[in-house]
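Subject: Carboxymethylenebutenolidase

B.,
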Amino acid sequence: MSGVYRDHASARDTGPEHPDRQPDAAPARVPITVLEPDGFARGGIVVLHESHEFAEALLEFLKSLAGEGWIVVAPNLFHRSGPPADKVFGADLFADFDACVDWLVGRGVIPDCVGVLGFDSAGTAALLVATDRPIGAAVSVAAPGIAEPLTTQATALVRAAPRLRAPWLGLYGASDAATPFGEVESLREAAARAATATLVVTYPGLHHRADEPGLDAHTDDPHTAVDARTRIFDWFDCHLR
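Prediction pasted inline below.
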């Protein structure tokens, strides 16, 4: 693999009508972390995350994605300010995502071969991106805000899911208090009304992230992480063509 490095993606010029745009200001530059595969890239995956630094387990997972042939681009969603959760939503989210897509296109990736992957509230953001952008596939892990929106800049997922434009996979723990089982079932039904492929997977006994094993030694099945990661890889393999 060609390694991990940092770069900047240029945001699209929003024009003077944008409420945050200063006169004569240059387009924003979005800090990104990039992981590239060896040789030819099959496509690109934009990874939305909530931390300023990657946990070792997440970095190893992203390296595994790159090892499968994807260019992985992870924007710093908090480059405008500090890390309040609502900053991953609204116009800033779409501006940063579009900047990452343009960066990938500049390296020869076609938009149909761009996917988005998000964890926790960034997983919520990933679903919302998939309702508004013509991408190839989306995956959300433990995405909250199902019945009620997380912020005024977000939409409740049960309302957003029928508008999905890209194949979407949602992974949930059946015992996660942040995403009650009944709400996840409602999301499954809502996503089934979308005019694209959708799949919601719940893991019995899991209290939170399916991609992170060992969160609760008494209830979390160690095979869950393997299954979840396999499903993520397979989803992108199937739909980013």
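The beta strands are 3-10, 29-36, 43-48, 70-75, 114-119, 137-141, 168-173, 198-203.

T.
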